[in-house]
Amino acid sequence: MAKITDAGRDHLKELRTALGDAADHLDDAAEAHARGAKREVERAHARLRRSLRAADASLKDAENSIEVETPTNTQVQTSGGISDSGGSTGGRHYSPLYRGDVLGFLDSARRGAAGGRR
Predict the structure, then answer these.
(1) DSSP sequence for 25-86
(2) What integer pLDDT is reported at residue 106 of this predicted model?
(3) How far apart are CA 95 and CA 57, in angstroms?
(4) Fewer CB within 10 Å of terminal CB in the chain, N or C?
(5) Which residues contact 48 (CB under 8 A, 6 or more apart)?
(6) Gyration radius from the chain CA atoms
(7) Which helix (H) or strand (E) element contains residue 2?
(8) pLDDT of 19-61, one tens digit each?
(9) What is the predicted pLDDT for the residue at 14?
(10) Closest CA relative to residue 52, chosen from 82, 24, 87
(11) Nearest-angstrom CA–CA distance, 21 and 18
């Protein structure tokens, strides 16, 4: 489960502000273009570029602020109460076919048929 920190929320607010500014600068550039004011268009594009770079930096900072919670609880609840499961130490027996071991599967099937594994 991922959790965003307070710092991450602040970065997302900065991102929202930078994107709002970028939209405003794009509108300014379009209006300047419609008036034929080349110099104003260039300035508006420069402000737009800075706003987009600020938005990118804020997004990266927000991504770095996300904390990933890894499950470390190995307790299980059964009808007898709560106890430590010991995790997956030793693992579970599974068919040799999962490893692509056909001969191992046939061998275990022979042993099983003969009553060798219980």
Answers:
(1) HHHHHHHHHHHT-HHHHHHHHHHHHHHHHHHHHHHHHHHHTEEEPPP---EEEETTEEEE--
(2) 78
(3) 50
(4) C
(5) 22, 25, 26, 29
(6) 31
(7) strand 2-4
(8) 999 999 999 999 999 999 999 999 999 999 999 999 999 999 9
(9) 94
(10) 24
(11) 5
The rounded Cα 38 to chain-centroid distance in angstroms is 43
Place of tokens 């007898």: 80
Is the pTM higher than 0.70? The answer reads: no
CA-CA distance, 30 to 24, in Å (whole number)? 10
Identify the helix (H) or strand (E) that includes residue 4.
strand 2-4
By C-alpha distance, which of 88, 15, 13 is closest to 57? 15
Share of the chain above pLDDT 70, in %: 71
Q: Which tokens is 103 given? A: 């001969």
Which of 98, 15, 22 has the alpha carbon at shortest distance from 63?
A: 15
Q: Report the SS3 class of residue 24.
A: helix
Query: Which tokens belong to 96?
Result: 């040799």
- Describe the crossing of helices 6-35 and 38-64 by its angle, rounded to 10 degrees: 170
